UniProtKB/TrEMBL annotation:
Residues 189-338 form the Glycosyl transferase family domain. This is Glycosyltransferase family 4 protein. Residues 35-170 form the Glycosyltransferase subfamily 4-like N-terminal domain. Gene3D superfamilies: Glycogen Phosphorylase B. It comes from the Bacteria. Its EC number is 2.4.-.-. Keywords: Glycosyltransferase, Transferase.
């Protein structure tokens, strides 16, 4: 009889990972982060499955050999959660994952109910720490914050320091995009680009107001707003009061690089943003960047070395930063070059490797780690 020389606490090199998320629809930053991570892990040799209600990436999952198991996790009607719990139980029994990684609150709570005393270790990622429900993500054996700001916020809200780790977001070399760069859009110059959801947290109204101030000094500047959302109508009305021709709403783009590669400046005027993926996309495209000094944005911009940081909710300061860039071509070129500072830190290989290191850490916890998880879930409830 052979002897297994592997320590019982040593995790396997090739992990079986099950990502659980409410859905996989494209226009959602949490989804895009999960898709990037899952595909990169699969490319690195891990056995990856995804459980969601479905969405837009099935073809991509097939390319990377990822199984996509459909479970409707809608919380209404309430009976649907019971059905989802039963379906997820079957998925876990069939997949037999080493790690269950949950990315949204509903998926985390469903997974926690099934993983408390069973083999799979549970990891949760806090993407939107500004939501009250984010504290429920503490049910994981480990909790991942997508920036250090998120991690510190969750610690203040009661997540134990010994169970939370920071893995900064990054999406350079995203599998969601073709490795062949798209042709840049033909845009009038100077072109200012915004990519994001059209809702108050992103500060779109501040950007539109700032553009009105900017036009007084730079009348040829054109603002392109890429994205959709529930407040689009009111933002269009606001834009009409400022300029009918210098602000263009472009709708959602599956590959915003076509705009980023054509733009002069990328602007992100968020009021709150944990670690926006679009900043790594804008940096990879070589844009000069102006963004607000909130959340994880400074971390994504090397604490201001790779972009200009301004105070949030101040259209006047936003406009002043834009005017300076557009009035000084040398400064604009300098900020384009600075967007590349330490950009390798935003590559997905790093994100995946650090995440897998978190998995391996908890797989080495043994039964004591499972007891800690049970105690944490009991406290959270």
């Amino acid at each position: 009889m052979g002897i297994n020389t592997r320590s019982v606490f040593e995790p396997p090199a090739r992990l079986k990972i099950l990502h659980v998320i409410n859905h996989t629809r494209r226009a959602n930053g949490n989804v895009c982060a999960m898709v990037d991570l899952a595909c990169t892990q699969a490319a690195q040799g891990h056995d990856v499955s995804i459980c969601s209600a479905g969405g837009d990436f099935d073809e991509l999952f097939t390319i990377f050999g990822i199984r996509h198991l459909k479970v409707d996790q809608n919380r209404k009607p309430k009976i649907n959660l019971v059905k989802a719990l039963w379906s997820l139980r079957r998925v876990i029994l069939n997949v037999k994952p080493d790690i269950v990684h949950a990315h949204m609150m509903t998926s985390a709570m469903l997974a926690a109910a099934l993983c408390v005393l069973k083999k799979p270790k549970l990891v949760t990622t806090v993407h939107n720490e500004f939501e009250k429900s984010a504290v429920l993500m503490r049910v994981g054996d480990r909790v991942i914050g997508v920036s250090e700001v998120v991690t510190q916020s969750m610690i203040r809200r009661g997540v134990p320091k010994n169970k939370i780790r920071t893995v900064l977001n990054g999406t350079v070399n995203s599998p969601r995009f073709s490795s062949i760069l798209p042709s840049p859009r033909t845009l009038p110059s100077p072109a200012i680009i915004f990519v994001g959801g059209l809702h108050p947290r992103k500060g779109v109204d501040d950007l539109i107001k700032a553009h009105g101030i900017l036009l007084e000094s730079c009348p040829r500047a054109h603002l392109f707003i890429i994205g959709g959302g529930p407040h689009e109508h009111e933002y269009r009305k606001l834009a009409d009061t400022i300029s009918e021709s210098q602000i263009t709403f472009c709708g959602h783009s599956n590959d915003p690089r076509e705009f980023l590669l054509a733009g002069d400046i990328f602007v992100l005027p968020s009021h709150a943003d944990p670690a926006p993926l679009v900043l790594s996309e804008a940096r990879a495209a070589g844009c000069a960047i102006v963004a607000t000094d909130v959340g994880g944005i400074p971390e994504m911009l090397e604490n201001g070395k790779a972009g200009v940081l301004v105070q949030p909710k101040r259209p006047d300061l936003l406009a002043a930063a834009l005017v300076r860039l557009l009035k000084d071509p040398q400064y604009l070129a300098e900020m384009r070059a600075k967007s590349q500072i330490n950009i390798s830190r935003l590559k997905l290989d790093r994100v995946s490797q650090q995440t897998v290191a978190v998995y391996q850490e908890i797989l080495a916890d043994g039964w004591f780690g499972r007891f800690k998880r049970f105690a944490s879930v009991s406290t959270a409830s």
